[in-house]
Amino acid sequence: MKKRLLFLLTAFVMLFNVPMLASAYFVGEEVPITYQKRFLPFDTPYVNYIAEGGQVFVSNAPESIYSDGAERADGSLIAGQVNATLYRDTVGGSFRFWGSHYNRSSTALKFWIHITNTENEPVRLYRSLEGFAVGEVTAAASKATLEFMNSESQPTLLHTIPAGSSYYFEYTADQPVDLSSAVVYFAEFRAEKENGGEEASILLSHVVTDDSVTDPTSYAETPTIARTNATATRSDDYRGLLEHWGRKGTIELELDDQALSAGVKIADLGYSGEQEKLMTRWNTMGEPIEQSEVRFVVPPNIDKIRLAYWYTDYVLDVRLVNNTSYSKIHTMHGSAGFNPGFINYQLNDSTAYNFHFSRETAVPVTTDMNYRLRLMVMPSAYLPFGIYFVAGDEEIPLDLAVVQAENTFDENDWTEAQTIVNAMPDGEIKTALLIRLQQLEQKRKAALQAVAQAESEVAGIEQELSQLNDKLQNTDFAVDKKERERLIQLLEAERSELQEWAKNTGQAIQLIPDKDKPGLSGIIVRLTERMDRTLGWLDSISIILEEAKDNDRKGNGNTEFRLSISRGDTVNLFDPLEDRLIQLLGSVDELQWLSMNPFKVTVDGLGHVTANENGVYKVIVYNDKGKADIFLVVNSKSH
Question: What is the pLDDT of residue 516?
Fold first, then answer.
């Protein structure tokens, strides 16, 4: 049966010439997103861009071209844009132009590029790349984008423009834009000085006229340009200049069994080095303004800065590392939200593809681990798009989200998996996955209950430790030997009981089921650290109590610290001893100070000591790492 199926599939591929990938998918197949999208945040170190290329002249507003007097849905009248400049700005050197508009006027339309040489010498204008299409909105955008991406750069001299003169051409000459049709034109140009070939500046006007016009110059030289169709709640403002047409990016990712998928947004707010602002010299009323960022503001909640969304030329070098239990990482490209759309991509400088994707689907790109991917988001697209890196074998398993939840025990992973499975069509697979999720949730709850019990135990132990330390601080070890032994015996009994409780709790923590799962391991590590600190404090207290049995010892040449102070003075012990205390105790955080004769030498929690009587006295400084003895030789003040 398997051989027959393979034969039929091979015959299908040969008959219809459908390219196959190094997986069970064919190129352009719409694959449901049954894995976590897990978009990387914009400040991630794994995705970086560098802007490259020249300026972009953008003309996408007014998006729809109307005749004068057209009526909006609310009954208001539109000021038409036929026979007008849609956008005008100065560009120079190598630059790209893209215009995307829809004819809702009452006449067929012509679209023109009009250029004025603002240099003091002749300027040569070259065109090296272009894509053009007229038709239904998305079809035109798809065709123009694909044509541009598959073009090879071939600089062609269009015209040498004398100083102060103009040149124009109609890019719709071979195909006027009929009613209810869209036009998309995307091209790369270079303006250079005739003598020397240096970059030259030109004034470019994008003009639309009715089909009777043969020279757009009069419309390219007006003091105002076309109004857009912006309203109080509709932006229609995407026209201006972008500084760079391209982004050279790197994506370096590692997947493991706790992170079986990851996503990168395309054409959204932007990763490091990705986005730049659209700048304009005209407002939506067509009036000239100082160059400023294009911003759509509707108080009090909307304040959107227009960025480089469409026709940004992404060239991404992708390097992946597979540390999962699966054999492959699939690169998928498609939906980032709930909208359908079209993707345009080129793998390793091969033929560019344009494919449709439906809601919550993505198209397979490659299973290579190192490759170069070129992307362009065409106009009329719902943003953002997503690129996904997903573990799998020949296909991405339908249970991948469930597997990740099982691997991590993370609540967010479980919730995401539940959402993904609930969206699947009813059937045996969905039922089986829902059962697994139910079983997983039961295991999670049992483990979390054990964790909660452990947290309660740890908190109780820490409270008892605090009380024991308070008793230690308030004990006078300078009393007679018999009374001292009685006090030490009481403290040691309490300490020993607390230590046994702490050891048992620490062992119980290590027996919590699935404690190594990422969803639990962080909590377990923190609880273990708290228990280790508690046991460290108890060890330090044990040493203090043992030495307190012989509290009359005055120290010798081997003691850690021996200082002389004058009676009645208050001395800061911490500052001069800080570095040596770090060496002995590993840290000076949470230090405790203890006077073994509190009536003759007092010490506060910051290490400030005051001697009340001549003699040799011991002060102990301790933490969970150990203790250090400080012997103070107290003398009368010299006069």
Answer: 83
